[in-house]
């Protein structure tokens, strides 16, 4: 037998003894009064005794124990659900914070992209300058053929 079962039986046994004692005292009171107008008073005493018995601390503790036994599994399930929801919420919060930091770093990177754009424009400008200066230098080094100057003819070989 478990300890709780033993305690429940002792509590029930004690309550039974108290009930028998109350009934015995009520019967003794009935014999003592015995008059016709005393029935109401006897009824009041009996009701008061039953009220005291119903609100006895051992009965209250037994009822409290029964309430805890019935409601505890549901409370444990609620606690488990809440912990699971908390873990999911923490994961979602982490994801949102990570996304926010990524967006902030993207807005801060616009300065770098402007810098890259400026450097690319400078590089394109320099390439055009180099291309145009190479075009002029090639133009200065190689004279253009004049239509007035005829090209020498190769000697003809006659046989």
UniProtKB/TrEMBL annotation:
This is BLOC-1 related complex subunit 8. It is found in: Lysosome membrane. It comes from the Eukaryota. It holds the Pfam family BORCS8. Keywords: Lysosome, Membrane. Belongs to the BORCS8 family. It comes from Gasterosteus aculeatus aculeatus. Residues 131-159 are annotated as: Disordered. Coiled coil: none annotated. GO terms for cellular component: BORC complex; lysosomal membrane.
């Amino acid at each position: 037998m478990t300890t709780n079962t033993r305690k429940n039986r002792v509590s029930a046994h004690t309550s039974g003894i108290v009930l028998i004692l109350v009934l015995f005292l009520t019967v003794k009171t009935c014999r003592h009064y015995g008059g016709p107008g005393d029935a109401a008073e006897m009824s009041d005493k009996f009701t008061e005794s039953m009220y005291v018995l119903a609100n006895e601390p051992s009965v209250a503790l037994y009822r409290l124990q029964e309430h805890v036994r019935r409601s505890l599994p549901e409370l444990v399930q609620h606690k488990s659900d809440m912990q699971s929801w908390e873990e999911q919420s923490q994961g979602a919060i982490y994801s949102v914070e990570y996304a926010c930091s990524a967006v902030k770093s993207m807005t801060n990177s616009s300065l770098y992209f402007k810098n890259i754009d400026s450097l690319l424009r400078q590089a394109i400008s320099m390439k055009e300058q180099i291309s145009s200066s190479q075009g002029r230098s090639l133009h200065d080094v190689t004279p253009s053929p004049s239509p007035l100057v005829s090209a020498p003819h190769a000697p003809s070989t006659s046989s």
